[in-house]
Amino acid sequence: MELDVFVKVVDVLTQNLQVSAGKLQIKSVLKRSSQSPELNVRKSVGDLTRRTSVCPAGRHVTAAEALQLGIIDEVTDHNAVDAAVRLAQSVAGKPLDARRISTYPCPRPPDSDVVFEKVMQEVRRDARGAIAPVTCVQAVRAAVALPYAKGMEREKELFATLFTSGQARALQYYFFAQRAVGRWSTPSGARWDTSKPRPVRKAAVIGLGTMGRGITVSLAQAGLSVVAVETQEKQLLAAKQAVTGMLERGAKRRGAPLVLDQIKYGRSVQAAADVDLVIEAVFEDMALKKSIFQQLSRLCKPGTLLCTNTSGLDIDELASQTQSPELVVGMHFFAPAHVMKLLEVVHGPRSSPEAVATAMQLGKKMGKVSVAVGNCRCFVGNRMLRPYVMQAYFLLEEGATPEQVDQVLEDFGFPMGVFKMSDLSGLDVAWRMRKAEGLVLPASAGESARIREGSRYSPLGDLICEQGRFGQKTGRGWYQYDKPGGRVAKPDPWLHGFLEEYQTRHGLAARRIDHQEVLERCLYALINEGFQILQDGIAAGPEDIDVIYVLGYGWPRHRGGPMFFAGQVGLDKVLQRLEHYHQVHPDVPALKPCSLLRRLAASGNPPISRWREILQKPRSQL
Ligand SMILES: CCCCCCCCCCCCCC(=O)CC(=O)SCCNC(=O)CCNC(=O)[C@H](O)C(C)(C)COP(=O)(O)OP(=O)(O)OC[C@H]1O[C@@H](n2cnc3c(N)ncnc32)[C@H](O)[C@@H]1OP(=O)(O)O
Ligand SMILES: NC(=O)C1=CN([C@@H]2O[C@H](COP(=O)(O)OP(=O)(O)OC[C@H]3O[C@@H](n4cnc5c(N)ncnc54)[C@H](O)[C@@H]3O)[C@@H](O)[C@H]2O)C=CC1
Q: Residues 328, 230: one domain?
């Protein structure tokens, strides 16, 4: 049973005493506790200023912390019901009035308005558009300002507003979507309930750059022995230091033992000979990956699963380099890999059900939500990211700045706009992809610099990589950072000058672009690709795409995910806006509405739960 579900908080007889089974977690808020978060605030309004405050953040607290906070009366490792009865008996017949919240005096500090304004600002900033945390503060404020009964009344009204909001529907949808992706199946017949995963005790990670480090940390934290391989001495040293830091911070945060000893570092893939599973995370270069898969296939013990963290290369082509293509799957993690909860498990046409099930299960063990996806260029998440990123580049060409585009996306609710996110991942990754696709032309390309195969193309990403600006890792990208590896993005005057010079060189007139256009062009291009992915059968359903976006890229959960969001906006409206933008930019195929979107819009904007039916209906041959 899930730990945080297993916990029992028994509201005993009087409904005033609570007992919690030990060591586990409970999700606050508990209304009937003797010291609810509301009461904490009544006692000390300032408590709420903590960013980690239980109430607006919906933070999970351990049973021990709940005891300390006074939310519960007792923690037990034994039968919670027995303990509850014992506790009830110990107070039976004694007056319990002193425990009733309604009887507590509620001092109102003179500066409470100032404090609440400050709290509200902080909560609003962290909530990134989610209304529940903000409403929480309003309820607490009412509890402080009004008599008890009136405060409760106000809370009821506020709750009713939340309950009937679009955000509540999005959150409920998302809750079930995340559960639904656990019941995965693949066209080749692999299924969550019939395909048996293999045990994996020892794993290897090949390549300890941005991704390999975080993957190593997640594997070790999941209790596996890890062989971590990096050929570059300097990278290896930096990786050891980074992995150690992540593990130390993680152990401190989770109150868990430090697992440094579980990792052995090596300079050659030979070190992976006796592992059960390998995750390759070297540069995004097909030739390099192929040679590594050939080596691994020769040296690993029979039955070893060979996985790749590629961002979008053909899994089947890699599988064809090995003696056992059925043991090859994609395990695509997201940056920062020890933090982001998503794992795309990419099944090639030859991946065995057992291999898919093993990768899915291992992802879960690593604390990720595994989503099974089909094999195509860039899979699901990154395939949708391409038109999103390309629109962002076009917007720069037309007069926007990275800061403006990012601000719009962050106001929408992303933790990072597209340019900050790209700087985090490393701009060289997509540059390598584009080079391999023949999209990168020499600087002397002239007229053709902005056209590829008759369609509009922006070389901006290529040009800044040519300057050695790979993002956070080099300390310069779309932003500047105080040092290589720095994380605080600052606007870069060099970049602004570069954009102006680029516009002049290509005869582009910068214009003022409003927020709505930025948002619509970026998001609707991404969503349009999502419909194409559904139509191509690469994702099993819209829920899979939504979970990928919420957990892989920080799409705001209270907006349900891109496909749910499209439904909430109205498919006819999304269609109409895409048609508009495609008319304005006819040389951008990504803005041409996908036929599935047209069909769904023509069916009258059906609820997302009915999309699969329409998807499966044979199309008219007329
Ligand atoms: C033709 C067109 C070309 C376009 C091509 C496009 C194709 C696509 C190719 C793209 C390249 C490949 C990318 C890929 O395959 C898939 C990806 O991974 S895309 C990236 C997805 N990730 C995101 O979108 C991240 C979004 N951001 C967030 O979720 C949060 O901001 C973040 C979790 C990073 C931080 O949240 P915050 O609350 O601020 O965190 P904390 O401060 O609490 O720290 C938590 C943890 O995270 C570490 N961290 C924080 N900030 C950063 C950072 N900037 N860089 C790295 N790590 C960071 C922090 O240190 C903490 O970890 P500890 O170990 O505990 O210290
Ligand atoms: N950066 C990102 O956000 C994401 C990247 N990926 C994918 O993960 C892979 C790695 O990407 P990054 O970590 O960003 O790259 P990176 O450039 O940060 O790291 C790659 C590492 O591999 C090492 N390496 C190269 N050849 C090697 C070999 N033969 N043996 C051992 N190590 C070798 C390099 O020295 C380097 O340290 C790529 O396929 C990329 O597409 C996947 C998800 C997200």
A: yes
429 touches ligand 2 (CB under 6 Å)? yes
Element (H, E) at 622: none
Q: How far apart are the first and last CA of the chain?
A: 52
Q: Which ligand 2 atom sits closest to the C-alpha of 235?
A: 37
Among candidate residues 341, 352, 342, 272, the one with its CA nearest the CA of residue 315: 352
Which ligand number lies closest to the CA of residue 209? 2
Ligand 1, residue 489: give the atom nearest the CA: 54
| Torsion of Cα atoms, 377 then 380 then 381 then 387, to 10° | 60
Number of domains comprising the chain: 4
Cα(311) to centroid of ligand 1, in Å? 15
- Cβ(333) to ligand 2 under 6 A? yes
Three-state DSSP at 336 gives: coil
Residues 452 and 478 in one domain: yes
Q: Whose CA is nearest to atom 1 of ligand 2?
A: 425
Backbone dihedral angles phi then psi of residue 564, each to the nearest 5 degrees: -65, -40
| Closest protein CA for atom 25 of ligand 2 | 282
Q: 231 CB less than 6 Å from ligand 2?
A: yes
Element (H, E) at 460: helix 460-466
In a domain, 194, yes or no: no
Structure tokens at 84: 């509850």
How confident is the model over 459-496, as pLDDT tens digits?
999 999 999 999 999 999 999 999 999 999 999 999 99
Structural domain containing residue 76 = 2-164
Ligand closest to 270 (CA) is 2
Same domain, 494 and 570: no
CATH assignment at residue 340 = 3.40.50.720
Question: Looking at the structure, do residues 357 and 247 belong to the same domain, yes or no?
Answer: yes
Q: pLDDT of 49-99, one tens digit each?
A: 444 467 777 788 888 888 888 778 889 888 989 999 998 898 888 887 777
**Residues 280, 354 within the same domain:** yes
Q: Is the CB of 268 under 6 A from ligand 2?
A: no
- Ligand 2 centroid–CA 213 distance in Å is 10
DSSP 586-615: TT-GGGSPPHHHHHHHHTT---GGGHHHHH
DSSP sequence for 386-447: HHHHHHHHHHHHHT--HHHHHHHHHHHT-SS-HHHHHHHH-HHHHHHHHHHTT----GGGGG
As for the ipTM of the complex, it is 0.98
CA 205 to ligand 2 centroid distance, Å: 10
Between the CA of 315 and the centroid of ligand 1 the distance, in Å, is 24
Question: Helices (H), strands (E): how many in the chain?
Answer: 26, 15
Q: Check pocket membership of 232 for ligand 2, CB cut-off 6 A.
A: yes
Return phi, psi of residue 261, to 5°.
-70, -15
Q: What is the pLDDT of residues 86-131, one digit of tens each?
A: 988 988 888 877 777 788 777 777 888 898 899 899 999 999 999 9
Which ligand places an atom closest to the C-alpha of 557?
A: 1
**Structure-token pair, residue 492:** 């870069």
**CB distance 472 to ligand 2 below 6 Å:** no
Q: Quick one: 489 and 531 in the same domain?
A: no
Among 328, 361, 378, give the residue marking a domain's end: 378
Alpha carbon distance 493, 509 (integer Å): 19
**What is the domain-level CATH number for residue 574?**
1.10.1040.10
Using a cut of 0.95, tell me whether the model's pTM lies above it: no
